[in-house]
Automatic annotation (TrEMBL):
Coiled coil: 155-189
InterPro entries associated with the record: Transp_IS110-like_N, Transpos_IS110, Transposase_20
Residues of the Transposase IS110-like N-terminal domain: 8-147
Origin: domain of life: Bacteria
Name of the protein this chain belongs to: IS110 family transposase
């Protein structure tokens, strides 16, 4: 008899990995460390594994996902909300590690999520450096806000921490620059992105590190990944406001800052923004629309490997919504 394809769900925690293989209903647990992962990688080779589904768990899932991908097993890393919503829709209201693993296997078989292509070691190093820089910048902003209400030794303590944060941010900037220049492909793409008014080295490097799909997927898909695509909220005769939802918050944050600058110095986005305001759109709505447009421009530039150029005459779609 022909062997039937199996779908594997893995619930990841700091200490353990709970595995469920569907439809044979085989379930087991291994330790989430090198020996346990090595044991896990050997077991699926006895089956015809179609796909392994894991949830994004703050990076705890990356080691096992990489190990499985290294032996040729397709892995999909999904948003935890997707798995939980699917569990509720399937009538699984209880939540345990064993149940979650079974739900993920069912999710994979039913919905066939896209395969996740994991980053290389160099890509991950750049991603971690960019993420750490963002964390330090957030801490620096918080400390500067606290400083205003402090006096005496407490203010001195905060000043010392601010100085430490600023030094480490500078060190990270140098490390990010070295990492981004370590590959010719990165150099070329970052240089392309920086030709756009409003896109500086921080934004360009963050996009390269945290949005590797840029230039490889459609405008619609890239907008959904970042979370700037407006979704309908209609039912029957009711027509609700379109709203953005989900996506990668760190990308939206840097894209927002870039759009603020581009709205002043980029002729395409400036005209687009002013046109939306002239139509009565709220400033926040107009700004999000500009973020959406900027992202699509960047996606097309990386896809076509063409730098930004200022159009001699703005097209109608560049000045209206």
């Amino acid at each position: 008899m022909q062997q039937r394809s199996q779908w594997v769900g893995i619930d990841v925690s700091k200490a353990t990995l709970d595995i469920y293989i569907r439809p044979i209903a085989q379930q087991f647990q291994v330790q989430n460390q090198a020996l346990g992962i090595a044991d896990l990688v050997k077991r699926p080779q006895a089956f015809e594994i179609e796909q392994v589904i894991v949830e994004s768990t703050g990076g705890l899932e990356l080691e096992v996902a990489q190990a499985l991908q290294d032996v040729g097993i397709a892995v999909s890393i999904i948003n935890p909300r997707q798995g939980r919503d699917f569990a509720k829709a399937s009538g699984k209201l209880a939540k345990t590690d064993r149940i979650d693993a079974a739900v993920l296997a069912h999710f994979g078989e039913a919905l066939r999520p896209a395969i996740t292509v994991l980053a290389s070691d160099q890509d991950r190093a750049l991603q971690e450096a960019v993420t750490r820089r963002r964390q330090l910048v957030e801490m620096l902003s918080a400390e500067k806000n606290r400083r205003a209400s402090l006096r005496g030794t407490m203010r001195q303590n905060v000043d010392t921490h601010i100085e430490w944060l600023e030094e480490h941010i500078e060190d990270l900037d140098e490390e990010i620059e070295e990492l981004s220049q370590s590959q010719v492909e990165w150099q070329a793409r970052i240089a392309l992105l920086k030709t756009v008014p409003g896109v500086g080295p921080v934004i360009a490097t963050t996009l390269m590190a945290a949005l590797p799909e840029l230039g490889t997927v459609s405008d619609k898909r890239i907008s959904a990944l970042v979370g700037v695509a407006p979704f309908n909220r209609d039912s029957g005769k009711f027509r609700g406001s379109h709203m953005i939802w989900g996506g990668r918050a760190n990308i939206r944050a840097v894209l927002y800052m870039g759009t603020l600058v581009a709205g002043r110095y980029n002729p395409v986005l400036k005209a687009f923004y002013e046109r939306l305001l002239g139509q009565g759109k709220a400033k926040k709505v107009a700004l999000i629309a500009c973020m959406h447009k900027l992202l699509r421009i960047l996606n097309a530039m990386i896809r076509d490997l063409k730098p930004w150029r200022v159009p001699e005459v703005l097209r109608p779609d560049e000045i209206c919504c």
